Batch of 4 targets.
Target 1
Amino acid sequence: MESERERGYALVLVLFMILLLTILGTAVVSSTLGGATRAETRENDVQSLHLAEKTLNEAASFLVTKYNGREDIAPDELSQLMQAGIVQLKRLTTSTDLPGASGKITDITTQQESVGDQTSYKLNLTAEAVVNGVTRRLTQQITIGAYPDFLNYAFGSENDVIINGAAYGRGNIYAGHEFLIDNTAKYIYNNDPNKKDTKYPYFDGNIYVQNMDSIKVQDKINGQYQPYSRTNLTLQQILGVDNGKIQLRDQKKFISINVSESFVDKAQEATNIVDRDSIKAAVDYGLAHSGESGRFNNLAAVLKNGSGVTVTSGPPGKPTLPTDLDDKAAMDAYDTALKEYEAYFVQFNSLSNTVLYNGDLKLDGLDYKSLIFTDSAKKDNHKWLIVNGDLTISNYSSDPLVVKANILVTGNVFISDSVQVDSTIFTLGSTTIEDAQIKGIQTNGERKQLILISKGPVLVNKVDSFKDYGQYDPTQSDSNILDAFFYTDEDAELYGVGSIFWLRGGFFSKGDLTINAVLGKASPGDADIIFDARPQSALAKEDSRFIINYNYDFFKNQYEGLPRVKKLSVIVGKKQLLSSNGT
């Protein structure tokens, strides 16, 4: 009996083991099949991701090949180039050997890079890849710019930036070669060179250099510059910034401007002359014959044939009051001539067409009380004043001289006294700013400014020399702050030693830029400048006599006058994976 019961137990145990093994076998088979399926799905997932990435890489390569480094692009040309590029991108498909796979650009959106910047675009590209039913989507942002880089910086140079003393910069700085620092300001007083020990400069913003070793400090013993990293000084001590504010930017990627080509562009735009080559040839001839009288007369002869161009060589002669006041005929003739004379100047208060002025033009605030183009003429219809000669803006009136005009000058530019501006000026000559009070016109609470682009050197001389205005306040609108941005193709040397050099705008040079600055008060002495009695170490950055406070509104306010750039830049951003719902 016991044996039968035992045999029954054994049978049940055997059946249970068979069932268990069957279940385990089924699970193993199921797991194996599922693993194979998951492996295949995972492989499709990886392959689709790689295919989407390849699609974006090919799109980025297409844009870099098409745009990066393309030379001599006028800002208004970029929109047309962009549209043509987008059409080609939408046709882009990525080749692959994978069966049942495809990759393409499914969406392209564009946006302005920043407020008011209408010459730089961000392309947001979306790539979609499908491999055996598995879909992956990636997005990438690519920026294409045609605006000149110099307008992005408070000050800088495509070559060396040399700062001697306690300059204060509010905004980004760029040095295309070396960034040379010293805490001793150099200056000339009564024709004698001299020096003043002060603080190192201080900056609120990023500093763009070629490499860390290009930041150099002058050795007080041997007078040579050496990389700051080989000294005991820190970035905070010599520049007022930490390491995170130092950015590397290759000079080869810097978007230069072409002053003479931009001048040609604006002249053609202002006159609607179809034959651009004739304008360029006349400009090139004038530049090649420096110092020769009438060297730009060929240019004037070409431009006068433009559409709607008003040509003038100055006012008619001012009539002389007759000696016999009872002579009716003589008095009538005098009154008629006087009205014609006064009417000539009145027209400059509301210009609507391009004006070609042959000869040197002197805006004095007396006869020429203002130079104003209508809003539609200046912004929408691209009308300019073209001066075939020198331009002098010297206000002899007690009222501010208003200049609301974009101006092309073949000669030199001289600005002094009180001027209110909303203007872009190109000059093929040199520029001198002497004791000038350049204030931006305020419209609806918004302050305009001057952009002055000079092929020749820019000299800023005796701006409020030896006057004391206390500490700098960026909110103030005192006359000692210039609302301007200056550019020169040459070297530039600026001083905030005896003079106050406070700029709400910027200063950039293609050649070396040298800045000398001290802190506090300064007054004239017999043999030397008498500096602030307080120790320089006790003074703050706001006490600097050289301060540039970058103005971000230039792109927006002076867009119609922005210059041609030497080449486009293409900046490729990071790729991001989109989820199934597109986020």
Target 2
Amino acid sequence: MRPDRDVIIIGAGFSGIYQLYALRELGFDVHLIEAGPQVGGTWYWNRYPGARCDIESIGYSYSFDAALQEEWEWTERYAAQPELLAYLDHVADKHDLRKDMTFDTRVDSLEFDDTESMWTVTTDTGTRTTARFVVAATGCLSKPLLPTIDGVNEFAGETYWTWDWPQGGVDLSGKRVAVIGTGSSGVQTITTIAPTVGSLTVFQRTPTYAVPAQNRLIADELAALKPHYAEFREESRLSVGGIPCGPELPPFFDDLDDEHALSELDIRYADGGLCFQQSFRDLLQNREANARAAEYVRERIRQKVTDPAVAERLTPRSYPIAAKRMCVDTGYYEVYNRPNVSLIDVKQQPIRRITATGVEAGDTVHEFDVIIMATGFDAMTGALEAIDIRSGGRTLRDKWSDGPRTYLGLMSAGFPNLFTVTGPQSPSVLSNMITSIECHVEWISATLEHMRDRDLTRIEPDVAAEDNWVNTTNDCADLTLLSEAPSWYMGVNVPGKPRAPLPFAGGVGTYKQILDGVTIAGYHGFDLSAGNPEPVSRA
């Protein structure tokens, strides 16, 4: 039995768009299904005030199209959401990709037919499509985490969610506004709306380490880089975080006196961005080195915030720096010097409930016109587990009930022909996502071409290889300080979610070398077979 399609792709963000392009170029019969009304993925949904990337624009972009690199002119060092969405719109138009996309359609279930070696894809519109392969390009931060606060639906004012901000924006001028959450979305929203609202009250559970973006217009920098884009991309693929961060420094205490160490931290902080966390090779492994860098950022917070009591509440002390996702800010701490901004530590004054008029925290009811929820995501696994994925009488949700189990973050044993782009236990969120996306998309595309050329129709990881990779991922995390933070890197932010390291902490370059080795060794750890004699489409 021949399936309706060779490949179904789920999601039209950066990964889904590139996967569609790559497979179509190879002659596969491929179609993409997207829950939203247009391309964009996370950059469509996350249009809250101040939303922007925390990776530099020149690296947070595709490398597969040399002409695109030349023609697209990024305006800022860190692109804002409208520019990122315009970029993806441009790519979709340039390559006429929309003709192979279906929008406003959510995939409800996937069921694998073991006899025919194909998936049945069922959507919320009732359509059922069979496909030999499915690529889940569902994103790492795309399943919103709804707060477990009593009365969340009782508020009589306006409630907004950063992950589904109204099209066209919201007029907050002069209003009494609460923001719940101080992760990246909260930090960006707070910084942007503070000057225009009447009053702003921030409810903070855990203070964040934020370093300055040093955002700026980059026309001259981009023009200077373009002739060297190829070298820049290759360096990105072999780097620790998927983007060059300058010369790798030695471990913190190797031949470095305190003055030299301070100088290096000054340089990284002044340059801005997440490369600060790569100031020293052992920053996330050596407790003393980490403590020195953390205290450096704490001192910067004290310098920026004029009220010592507020500065102390904003100062992280309970976890190592970079063990939770760091934030890149454009004046976040300075916001708290404004007379219309106040900060509530919910560990000292717990949120008891949302009332009709506001938020009850501690023994006080704070009245608001608007409540903004910046409460984060069920990261890495949430979007996949939201789909009813079944194979051999078992669901993926059940298999992952004690934590995700994958081989290389690409596939999960027992679920043949299902690929996950930047899935759990790959570098993903510990990297420049676009570098990691391209790595996976190109591997999936080359693998499917390899299989088609040999009339192979089924691929699945070995259980032993998967077990070894899960152990490798856990061991890599254990060599770091990641487990010492209550972070979504470990699944801790979701009540009831198993505590386990979700990304691979060994670095992008190391991961690429492992993946290349697996391929060269004849797809070591994967079982490729002619599970069904019907071949897929040929170019």
Target 3
Amino acid sequence: MRNHRLVLSAALVAAGIGLIPGIAQAAGPGPVAPAAPAAAQGAAATGAAPDAARAFKGKAFTSPADRTVVTPESGDRTGGTARAQGAQGEQDGSRLSIDLYATGTGAHSIDLRTIVLPWDDAALDVTISWGDGTTDTFSATVAGFDTDLRYTKHTYAAVGSYDVKVTVKDTTNGVEAANELTFVTAGAEFTSHAPTRLLDTRAGLGAAQAKVGGRSSVALKVAGVAKVPAGVRAVVLNVTVTNTAGPGHISVGQDKDLAEGAETSNVNYVAGQSVPNLVIAPVGDDGYVHLFNGGWESVDLLADVTGSFTTAPAAGYGALTPTRAVDTREGVGAAKGQVAGYGTFGVEIAGRGGVPAGATAVALNLTATNPRADGHLTAYPSGQAAPATSNVNFTAGQTVANSVIVPIGPDGKITVRNGSWKPADVVVDVVGYYTPDSRSAFVTAWVPMRLLDTRKDRSWGLRKAAPVPARAYEPMRLEGDRTTPEVDGWALNTTVTNTTGAGFLSVAPDPNFWSDYQNGTPVTPQRPLSSSLNWTAGATVPNLVQTPGGKGGMVDFWNQGWENIDLLVDLTGYYQTIR
């Protein structure tokens, strides 16, 4: 019997099914939301190909029919242009109207719905100008008061804002009409930012100098602050909770209601802990993000920015299979031996391990292990002074990891600093990079989507609640069964809970296709060496993971411990090039 379970993350997928409200709980790994349907090993494949990316509902852009501008034929009684006024109007504007509705499907694509309504029988010639210098055309014959409704998809070469104009010529009645809207791509590209503290409730930075009360939230202005662009779509924050007096969780959202009503969590804590986690947070139209304390006791919150995503060409993502760049225990990538208290060391990043020479930032998993005293680790660009921020917080003897996105210095290096007064070992795994040569843009989930909660039965009974067995892996299908994945990388918030011993989680691409599992013929993946998060008995530990899928769009979650664990996986976004 194979030592793995098979997960199908199809729920909120082809049919666009939304999350079902779950049970809010202050302790443990965030609120519990029913997960997507799952298929146990050997179950028949579902009819609809699952595709987690397509479950994202993009922002809608509209221009209703009453905004149509109509130009009558020469010599017509109005003698000029008019706004469409509906089928019963008396101006020429009522002879022809165009309703526009557009959404973003994927990082660079637009799905445009056009509804053309003529007053009389009409032969129509339609031109769609996409705003990037390209057009599509079609013709239709429509009976009076009937409509021509159709969907047209277009892909842009770059992320950005585009003015889309639809022009309709009614050659039968000599009328021309036009309507237009401004469309913004769902994808955004990355700009690195020197690590900068935006929020510290202990000091009154970014918010009042006071703890965030239990079941309360704090609003943090990020757009236009500390050189973060005004039109930012999402921001990369290292969020830390500290001075905790009880268990709870932190949820981050683009507005207060979304943060406080979230069915997922970003950071989990218990009394006396200081816990960080990297969050790629969507930013509200008002330039704010909101951080909700889901515990019953007050806490202090810190947030450090290391980058942002905007809808303008900057740097795209490059996904890598996790590669160990540094292990001071073995002398890999740095001198063998613990890093001295308040000591630093440089790490060569650009031009090594799959990271190109022109990369501007790197995505890492940074781990502290065997520390002799409490402290923290900070990663920052080489050639700069150490910032007053932290990436990983630890206590004596603890092994703890955190995801990090850090700018690369001009010499192609980053610097890691041990913020403890005593030595500690450091492990660095490279999981991806950002470069101007890539057009792989990030599409953020306005609300994180729970893909897996092993504590709960999945919809339709296809996967019963069961932990991930010791030394086993959990394959997850994130795309349809295709030979070339459409997504370059996934941003997943992973949480391990109900632990009875120490261990670590590894996340890596799966080499199989979904059909291989359905047929009972999968190749057993090679066990990864890298770690995404570490835990001890009784701990609940989250960490953001950025990973590519395998050739079939599948990802494996490895329980590298010797006891069973429960696992939660929340989709927070994905990276995609032009398709």
Target 4
Amino acid sequence: MTALTLSTAAIPGLKADAIVIGVAKDTASGPGGLVVAPGAEAVDKAYDGGLAGVLETLGASGAEGEVTKLPAPTGFKTPLVVAVGLGTPPEKDAAPDHEALRKAAGVAARALAGSKKAAFALPLTDAADAGAVAEGVLLGAYSFDAYKNKNAHKNKGDNGGKGRKKDAKAPLAEAVLLCDTSRDKAFKAAVERATTVSEELNRARDLVNTPPNDLDPEAFAAVAQTAAKEHGIKVQVLDEKALAKGGHGGILGVGAGSASGPRLVKLSYTSAKAKKHLAFVGKGITYDSGGISLKPAGHNETMKCDMSGAAAVFAAVVAAARLGLEVNVTGWLALAENMPSGSATRPGDVLRMYSGKTVEVLNTDAEGRLVLADALWAASEDKPDAIVDVATLTGAMVLALGNRTFGVMANDDAFRAAVLEAAEEVGEPAWPMPLPEHLRKGMDSAIADIANMGERMGGGLVAGLFLREFVGEGITWAHVDIAGPAFNEGSPFGYTPKGGTGSAVRTLVRLAEQTAAGDLG
């Protein structure tokens, strides 16, 4: 990952490949106006105060995500200035827009791929700004190249061999955050926190991007065991025999068709000073073919990402341990591969779940709720103060909220609001969703306690109602459906790469921090 440091060095004498500055729309001067953001004063001075005019001439508007490159002024030891758009600045006396800084830093870091060192002279008025920029840099510079042959010769192009494709550029190697108080404890702490969270979030991205032939349930469990040992986290892994002995019919039923057996992983981080206990539950379908209810072509190519919820939970628990948060956090990874075969669960089968309830399986492609149901009941047995499950659960949620926003449902309005507040604080788009009671009847079964399908309309809400049936009585619970933002099939944007995004990791970590601070009651 990109190395990150704080520095008070003067910009003109700094040796780097590029200096990153911020520019924003100047709303006071009317359409097309541009203003240079704080932090770039030395650069602006070297242009005799005319940097904004030079950038406007080059077509810069200050729009979010915009990058404009120009030669550094004479006398600078750095050859390149990279101006990145911050969008419309906050109104006077308004709180700083940390997400704008995070996105700008991410865009710049990605634009500087292949560079050895870049200095970031973005506005850092307080420690929170420094943390946001640090996160943006570390998340924006992310690259997954584990399966690219680094020693291969350049490939021939598509023009008869006359041209050659360029090798993919390595991520930005080093980033220096320029500020006035590099030795300030708060700034250092903010950057250290950002580094820890970003490292774990990028680990989650790596897991999501790993091909399913290399990341089956057993392999995922092994990764969790290794990390748990490294960071002092207690780990328990239930294999097929243990799951059968315990009666985990949901996880076993989903994994029945695969040659790779399912796993239920429990990660327990405990703090001697903890007064609260959170349980995070993640859906971990390492590949989802749909099972006997097979997905059609065009809908299964990215289904390695169906374990994004488990990856997020795993990353959040490790981050909590590394940060030493004063809250107990238990992570449950419900891991299985959903495949069709002669041993697979069939539509019409009835599964007896870990809770003792029976479920009529009407659609084997509604498998995530089955593994989560067992894990939710297991999590409930520990009597945590609250449970949050995270899952790429329904296409219906993507239809409702699009590809960048996750939905949040809960059995407690105040807790749902707390999860949404945590998401907003860290810059993850989220939206409250209801659990309409009238939709529950659609899951009534003539032969079992409940069916795994209900009304088609409102399918994301139906899935939430199903999960609620497996939460222990009196336990506060929230369901986070990240089906939209978990995997980016489009172009990179902000600090979000193509492929696995690490959705919900930062929200879970922030929720744990708020709980440790006593902000959740």
